[in-house]
Amino acid sequence: MAGKKSRKPADGSYSDAWRNFSKIILRPGIRMMMRLDWRGQQNIPADGATILAANHLSYMDIFAVSLFADSAGRYPVFLAKSSLFTIPVVGPLIGKLGQLPVYRGQTDIGLVLKQAEMVANNGACVIFYPEATVTRDPEQWPMVSKTGVARLALETGAPVVPIAHWGAQKILPYGDHIPRILPRKTVQVVAGPPVDLSEFAGKPLTSQVLRAATDKIMTDVAALLGGLRGETPPAEPYHPAVARRKMRQELRALADNSQEPSDESGAASP
């Protein structure tokens, strides 16, 4: 039994036997849960360190993107919550599959350097959700993202392939716990060409550089998603903190207006 104290952090190593076993189980299992309509696998490098940057709509999209990467000949490696590595049976298994722990509370620098070493040394295909969580955008476009994906790319030189998907949220909407498997729903997945980050090469990794590189990556992701949806992405990505602040301001304005004195006709006083 792997307890919290005894479980060592994943270092990017993995078991070929366990990976082969997971393919036998997961390939047909995922296809049973969803229909898949995908294109663009040719944009994923056949080997070497690679980052797939994807939008995040549902916990179910993890399966769709995994099989998409697998269909391109790349075994998917995810960033998983470090707490999962302490769970008996589950922890040792995902460690053997080469999945990577994310330690809550660490900064992007502390988190990403661990992944950068793994990517550079083992040439893995890492699936990165730059938003860090399922989007909170009411219209389900990508939110403002964390800069870890840009740091990882610029630290290692690994190409970043933008990935967009649509449909997984219909199987398991955010907040639900029971997948809606039947009738089977179609999940669309598309990969674009690697993002051109050459303008940032050799520059100090300041917050401004990382933000600009991240925004460029997510612009490509949003454009691909717009193609799947047949819609134009918003000019500015949704920012939860900004949205909450705007809501508080609107509520405060409504409260102030409701307290204004009025005349007998019910009209507000000038």
Question: What would you note in describing this structure?
Answer:
The longest helix is centred in the last third of the chain and has 23 residues, at 207-229. It is globular, with a radius of gyration of 22 Å. α3 links the parallel β3 (76-81) and β4. Strands 1-7-6-2-5-3-4 form a seven-stranded mixed sheet, with helices on both faces. The protein contains eight helices and seven strands; from the N terminus they run αββαβαβαβαβαβαα. It is of the alpha/beta class. Mean pLDDT is 86; it is low at 1-10 and 264-270. It has one domain (16-257): Glycerol-3-phosphate (1)-acyltransferase (3-Layer(aba) Sandwich), CATH 3.40.1130.10.
Tags for this model:
Glycerol-3-phosphate (1)-acyltransferase; alpha/beta; 270 residues; seven-stranded mixed beta sheet; globular; disordered C terminus; single chain; disordered N terminus
